[in-house]
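Lab notebook, bench 4. The sequencing result for the construct came back, and we need a structural model before the next group meeting so we can plan mutations. Quick request posted to the team channel:

Model the 3D structure of this chain.
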Amino acid sequence: METMKQQESLASEKIHFAVMAIEAGAKQMGISPKEMRRRLERVDLVDRLIFGCYETLHTESLQHVGEDLAEALRNWEARTGDVQRQNGEGGTAL
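Done. Here's the predicted structure in token form:
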């Protein structure tokens, strides 16, 4: 059974990983980490992909995680009809 300290440590590790993953994805897409986080949150990929798949993703290289994150974001934005992002990476919100 996990102790409270172990749970807090794992939560801290997941948050640290999420920050690194968002930065790697942003670099892959040529946008700021702030913009990357905003876009990921818009399609709920922070919880569903970064935290939801933490056990698998944290074993991969950071470059590969960034590539996966960028690809997933592009796919979800296209799927949800976020037209402001389909034809370019940067830009301003509508």
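The chain has one domain: 9-77.
Will bring this to the meeting.
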